[in-house]
From TrEMBL:
GO MF terms held by the record: protein-transporting ATPase activity
Lineage: Bacteria, Candidatus Eiseniibacteriota
Subcellular location: Cell membrane
Sequence ranges assigned to domain Protein export membrane protein SecD/SecF C-terminal in this UniProt record: 114-292
Domain of life of the source: Bacteria
Keywords: Cell membrane, Membrane, Protein transport, Translocation, Transmembrane, Transmembrane helix, Transport
Organism, as annotated: Eiseniibacteriota bacterium
Gene Ontology CC terms, in alphabetical order: plasma membrane
PANTHER family: PROTEIN TRANSLOCASE SUBUNIT SECF, PROTEIN-EXPORT MEMBRANE PROTEIN SEC
Protein name: Protein-export membrane protein SecF
Amino acid sequence: MLQILHGVNVNWMARRHIAFIVSGVCVAIAIASLILHGGPRYGVDFTGGSLIEILVTPPVHVDAVRSAVDRAGLAGSEIQELSRPGQFLIRAEIKAGRASPSDAIANAVQAGNAGRKVEVLRVESVGPRVGNELRGAAIKAIFFALGLILIYVGIRYDWRYSVGAVAALFHDVFITLGALSITNKEITLTVVAALLTIAGYSINDTIVVFDRIRERSKTLRREPPEKVMNVAINETLSRTVITSFTVFLTVVALFTLGGEVIHDFSFAMLVGVVFGTYSSVYVASGLALEVQLWLERAGGGGAKK
């Protein structure tokens, strides 16, 4: 395997309490943002309604579009101006017995802005009942995945490892959710897919570190647990850096060049990759070490041999 870091001897575990404080602050900020925003900002996928993307050429001001939407009988709709001049994203409520309002919006914008061309680029519509069902299914999917990971790590390693691994997963997913809340981005099915992808990426990185910790626990059984974990983390550091940097570059490309459709997905992945790499070292391994030290102090023994 390609090695870019040789002879690294960093005492990672000596800084674990600082890392715990940093993680605690990040989680607290995420909680505060979610409280201030009244919870996650669910998209049309989960709340029901229509998502209409239009392009007006030559471009007009967002106030002109808002006035046209109000005239179409859709007052209160959310209008977002995208990066391309004249491109707008409109979220409108679907009223009972009424079809998607995309044509009404396009006609109203056209009528209020003579000499301009209005093109409907995208329309997504979901009923309120379907939206509620999708939201429940998405929440169940996330917790189901985390529960299965907890069982898998507990069987493959030791219960103290599973505590650290699942805590790291909740840490990564929750901080990513907080970042989405802080930036006022919507939680859509695509973003849920990103959260599940982050969980998979994070546990994969964590398991690589745990495998090496288990190996070194046998060869360095006379050494203190802190040293064993530091040796294991340093030995897998090259792999961690190469993998994380490669994924990071790919996600940056998606974020900058992928367009508006996958913008929120790639943003969530960016946050998740950074915190997933960090949590594999400090949160998962650090908590596993804390549990082992607590067991030794309590006379309960250490890990499985």
